[in-house]
Amino acid sequence: MKNTVGFAVFVLVVLLLLFFLSSSKKVPPIPSDALHSGITTDAGCATCHGPGKQAPLKPAHPPKEQCLVCHKKK
Question: Which end of the chain is less packed: N or C, by CB atoms within 10 Å?
Answer without folding.
Answer: N
